Amino acid sequence: MKNAPVRAGSLLEKLTVERAATAVGDFGNTVTLWTPIFDVRTELIEHTQEEEPADTGSRITIKASFSIRYTPSLKMTDRVIWGGEIFDIIGLKVLGRKQALQIDVRRIGP
């Protein structure tokens, strides 16, 4: 994506952004709760999937990059749900003059 504003016609995907909160459980243990903070329309920029051997078989790493309209409230500690799967945010990059935000995510699974 260049420094052009995000076009509504290119926002074909949907992400749900979640933020973690910690609470004390019934037995004094710390519990992490994930709460949806907003849904956003996004453009998928790049999507890769790699398979590598692991101790218990193979492990798949999925990486993706998305472009959304700029929002200052997104944090690296948040996570996103895309296509029913949970992804960790591994990078945030402001595009243009705060016109857009590139979100790089990763999911490691079996």
Briefly say what this structure is:
By secondary structure, this protein is mostly beta strands. The protein has strands spanning 13-24, 30-54, 57-69, 79-82, 85-95, 100-109. Helix content is 0%, strand content 68%.
Task: Provide key terms for this protein.
mainly beta, about 110 residues, 6 strands
Descriptive account of the structure:
The chain has 110 residues and is mainly beta. It is built from no helices and six strands. It has strands at 13-24, 30-54, 57-69, 79-82, 85-95, 100-109. A six-stranded antiparallel beta barrel has the order 1-2-3-6-5-4. The two termini are 31 Å apart. 14% of the residues are buried.
Number of strands: 6
The level of helicity is under 10%
Cα gyration radius (Å): 16 Å
Distance N to C terminus = 31 Å
Large-scale geometry:
flat
On the 0-100 scale, what is the average pLDDT?
90
Strand order of the largest sheet: 1-2-3-6-5-4
Low-confidence stretches: none
Largest sheet: 6 strands, antiparallel, barrel
What fraction of the residues are assigned to beta strands by DSSP?
over 45%
Instruction: Give the SSE order as H and E letters.
Output: EEEEEE
Structural class: mainly beta
**Count of individual helical segments:** 0
